[in-house]
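Design request, tokens follow.
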């Protein structure tokens, strides 16, 4: 709290002056891959420490291609701390949301690197124009819920982007889902989506909502949103930064992908 107040006092206004600023130095973010050669089988530390199996080595055992799935990453930082070659480093960018699930998988070999979706490339306003109403369904992640709530505070002020949170799915354009979607929340989640009118989009916010994270494959059948609903944007992180959540809402609602999928029709009551 004190840091936030000092930050606001220094820049003489509460709201962040720059949209989607990089994380400050020393603040841990998602991992990213560089082109620095990996030691391969001689090392293997990242694969061994990753709690969710997000990192894979393939190809030449002495100089492998490293792949890193941000949709499985719980941002523990162990791979960044342990990598002796800086093949894995921290990514300070807050523009981390993507439209397609496969964009969350990064590769160390330059020719296979998939670009991260940037808001700069999203020109179309889509069917929602400049204003969207968001219904949040938390299936069990207090950390991500706190970051979602933070997007509406004076620092991030998501309402200046036309983003508003609503209580009823009848008035919502966006279904924003947090948590791993365990068995008890699967039907309520789908019911909430069915109560929304077209056009509507679904955003999986946080690693648990994307893949189940550490809960994946467990007894609660908690493998994220994708087994239950089509997802239009993915915001990785455990939890994601508020700027990344705003990024996800904007790319989902201003993307051509928004126009895909919207039937059956539901009226707003
Ligand atoms: S930061 Fe992500 S990819 Fe790296 S070890 Fe932790 S969970 Fe795995
Ligand atoms: S920790 Fe770094 S050097 Fe070691 S296997 Fe992983 S990417 Fe390669």
């Amino acid at each position: 709290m004190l840091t936030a107040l000092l930050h606001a006092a220094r820049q003489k206004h509460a709201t962040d002056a720059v949209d989607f600023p990089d994380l400050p130095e020393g603040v841990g973010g998602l991992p990213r891959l560089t082109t620095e050669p990996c030691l391969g089988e001689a090392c293997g530390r990242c694969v061994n420490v990753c709690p969710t199996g997000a990192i894979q080595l393939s190809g030449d055992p002495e100089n492998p291609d490293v792949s890193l799935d941000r949709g499985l990453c719980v941002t523990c930082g162990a791979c960044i701390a342990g990598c002796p070659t800086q093949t894995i480093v921290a990514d300070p960018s807050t523009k981390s949301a993507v439209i397609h699930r496969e964009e969350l998988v990064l590769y160390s070999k330059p020719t296979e690197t998939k670009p991260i979706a940037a808001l700069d490339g999203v020109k179309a306003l889509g069917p929602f124009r400049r204003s969207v109403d968001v219904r949040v369904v938390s299936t069990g992640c207090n950390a991500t819920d706190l970051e979602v709530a933070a997007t509406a505070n004076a620092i991030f002020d998501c309402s200046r982007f036309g983003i508003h949170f609503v209580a009823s799915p009848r008035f919502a354009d966006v279904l924003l889902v947090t948590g791993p979607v365990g068995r008890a929340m699967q039907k309520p989640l789908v019911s909430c989506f069915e109560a929304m009118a077209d056009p509507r989009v679904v955003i999986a916010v946080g690693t648990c909502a994307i893949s189940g994270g550490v809960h994946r494959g467990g007894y609660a059948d908690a493998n994220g949103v994708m087994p239950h609903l089509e997802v239009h944007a993915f915001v990785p992180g455990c939890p994601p930064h508020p700027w990344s959540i705003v990024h996800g809402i904007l790319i989902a609602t201003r993307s051509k992908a928004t126009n895909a999928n919207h039937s059956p029709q539901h009226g707003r009551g």
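Comment from the thread starter after seeing the answer: thanks! Helices lie at 2-11, 45-49, 78-82, 142-150, 183-194, 207-211, 242-253.
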